Amino acid sequence: MAPHEGRVHTKEYDIKDSNVELIGSEIDHRVKYNSAATEPAWNNGQVGKAPGLWIWRIENFEVVPWPKSRAGEFYDGDSYIVLHSYKVGDEKLGHNIFFWLGNKTTQDEAGTAAYKTVELDEFLQGAATQNREVQQYPSEEFVSLFRRISIRTGGVESGFHHVEEETLAEVTKLLRVFKHPNVGHVDSIIVYEVKPTWQSLDDHDVFVLDKGDKIWVWQGQNCSPMEKAKAAQVVNDMTLAKHIDVEVISQLESRSKIVVDLLGGQTVDQRTFQASRPISLSQRSHDHRNQPRPSKLFRLSDASGTPSFDLVKDGGRVYLSDFDGNDIFLYDVGCRLWVWQGLGASDREKALWLKVAQAYIRQLQHSQNDSLAHRIPIAKVLQGHESPAFLATVEV
User: Which keywords annotate this record (predicted)?
Assistant: First the structure.
C-alpha cells in the first residue's frame, strides 16, 4: 500500500501555534540530532545553481525529493518544502522557499519543515525569501507556481506517532475541481478532496465521485471548460489504476439527481448548490469596523543593549529607505506579514524575529478580535535580495 493511503495522523498540528516558534524548541533540537552534517537533498548539483522548481516532502524527519511528475500534488496530512529559483538579470539567481503545512500535518513534520527551510536558506547564503504556507489560505505567489494543484486526503506517518491503517467497508471519495480565483493572470485549477456529501456540491465547479465500483462526473451548470478538462484528466488517471465504468452527467440534465442521491441527498429537492470553496487566497485583514487594516512598520533592535520593538509608521506610504540595514523590521501590509532583515542585524536580532512575528500575530488575534489572524502568511526577506512581491509593497 502506498504510504499516503489509509493513514490517519493521531496528533494534528494547530497552525495557530505557528511553526516559526518551534525554532530553538525541543523539537528543533530533536530535528538537529536526526539531521546529518550535510543534507543530501540540497546537494544534487542543481539546487542554488540553476533556475527551476524543487519540491520535497517531510518523511520521518527526512527531506525526501518529490517526483517532478507530481508537482502541485499535496496531501493534507503532510508538510512540504518548495524552492523556486528564478533569474534576476543575466547571472544572479533569486530564491523563494515555501514550507507548506497541510491541515492534518503533525507537529513533528511542521517543525522539521520549519527547521529545514532555515537550513536551505543558509545553503543559499541566506539570500532566499522564506514563506510559511497553510493549506486553506495559500499566498498568490505559491499558487502561481503551479498550473494545477491537487490536495488529497492522507499522508506519511509521523516519526513519533504510530499510525494505524484505516480500513473502510466502502471507499467513497469526492473530488472538487475548480479554478482558483483572483490569481492575477495565472489560471490555476485546484483538485481538492472534500467531504462526500451533497452539501459539498456547487453549481460553478465539477465533481468527481468515486464509489469504488463506478466513477461519476458531475458538471455544475456554471462550470468552465478548464474545469471539465481537468476533471477528465483526473478520471483518466484514476481509471489507469482500475478499469471501471465512468459516467459524466451535467447538472442541467434531469438525471443529475442520481449523484445527489448517491451523496445522501435523496430527500433534497433543490436545483442550485452553493458550497464555500475549501481554500481561498489570503485576503487583506479587516478590523471590527470592516475596514482594511492600515499597514504598519515596526523596528526590532537591540542597539541599546536591550531588545526593543517599536512602531515606525502607522498607515501611509512606506519607502525602502525607511528600512535601516542595522536592524530587522516587521512590515504588516494586511494580507501578509513581511520580515525584512538588514545585512547589519545582530545575531540576537536574527534569532528573535521568529518569536516576535508570532507574538505580533497573536496580539492581532486578541486585541483586534481577529480570529483569522493566524492565517496571515509570514515571509522573510534579506536586504539586497528582496523578492518582487515585497518590492511591490514599498516605494523604491
Answer: Membrane
Q: CB–CB of 192/72 below 8 Å?
A: no
Q: Does residue 254 share a domain with residue 336?
A: no
Residue 10 lies in a domain: no
Q: What is the pTM of this model?
A: 0.74
| C-beta of residue 50 within 8 angstroms of C-beta of residue 85 | yes
Q: What is the rounded CA–CA span in Å between residue 5 and residue 1?
A: 7
Please report which confidence band the pLDDT of residue 137 belongs to, taking 50, 70 and 90 as the band edges: confident
pLDDT digits (tens, 9 = 90+) for 308-348: 889 999 988 899 999 999 999 999 988 788 999 999 988 77
Residue type, 380: K
70-74-80 Cα angle (round to 5): 100
Nearest to 124 by CA among 396, 382, 390: 382
CATH of the domain at 34: 3.40.20.10
Helix axes 107-123, 26-34, angle to 10 degrees: 60
Total Cβ atoms within 10 A of residue 62: 18
Residue 344, all three cell numbers: 547589519
Give the total number of structural domains in the chain.
3
**pLDDT tens sequence across 180-223:** 765 455 567 889 889 999 999 999 999 999 998 899 999 999 99
Q: How far apart are CA 207 and CA 172, in angstroms?
A: 13
In a domain, 118, yes or no: yes
Of the residues 152, 183, 203, the one at which a domain ends:
152
Residues 179, 114 within the same domain: no
Report pLDDT digits (tens) over 251-286: 999 899 999 999 999 998 888 899 988 877 554 433
Q: Is residue 157 part of a domain?
A: no
Question: Are 131 and 178 within one domain?
Answer: no
98 falls within a domain? yes
Are 83 and 95 in contact by the 8 Å Cβ rule? The answer is: yes
Regarding whether 320 and 241 lie in a shared domain, the answer is no
Cα first-last separation, the chain: 54
